[in-house]
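Researcher: I've got a protein sequence and the SMILES for flavin mononucleotide. Could you write out the 3D structure of the bound complex as structure tokens? I'd like something to compare against our soaking experiments later this week.
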Amino acid sequence: MKNIGIFYWPIKGNVETVAKKIKEIYGADEVDIIDLSKAEPKHLFHYKNLILGCSTVGSESWEDATDDNVWYQFLHKMEDDKVDLNGKNLAIYGLGDQMRYPYNFVDGMERVFSHIVNHNINHIAQWPNEGLTFKESLALHDDKFRGLAIDLDNDEDEADATITKWVEMIKKEI
Ligand SMILES: Cc1cc2nc3c(=O)[nH]c(=O)nc-3n(C[C@H](O)[C@H](O)[C@H](O)COP(=O)(O)O)c2cc1C
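Model: Sure. Here is the predicted complex with flavin mononucleotide in place.
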């Protein structure tokens, strides 16, 4: 059993870039990265610790999400299957663009989190609200994000340092 499974979607964009970076920083032999569109809820049980990766593309609610939204489908499958993650450590990261979408920054992270939190997880690695410029985010609670809020569109130069800091946080909490 590998230590960490990173389940992410969409593929081929910034969410995937961050998944690969986490794997590189953490150590390839400890981490698998899994395209969510090829996964089923039972695959979550292959890992002691879980990281979920998502982005915000449009500020639509789940109710308006299109059928091709893989996170929406996966989370509903988990609900149907009554998946019990039994205290597994779970961290989440979300991509967003603070300049173009300052009122909906990384909202998608909250949408995913609001489902996964119902599956008996141990939520780790919340991210402090520091160094970002935005107005509102659904994913911000008590001045902490549900997980790593990262903006590769505007802060690419800092990305490696930011991800490294988050990985250190995860290591301390698991
Ligand atoms: C049509 C569209 C809508 C977007 N809406 C939001 C948004 O509401 N909030 C936000 O923080 N970022 C928003 N973004 C920015 C993306 O989340 C950001 O570019 C992210 O890095 C995309 O990652 P991905 O290519 O892996 O999906 C939007 C991008 C696009 C193209």
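Model: The CA atoms of residues 88 and 123 lie 8 Å apart. The mean pLDDT is 94.
Researcher: Great, I'll pass this along to the crystallography team.
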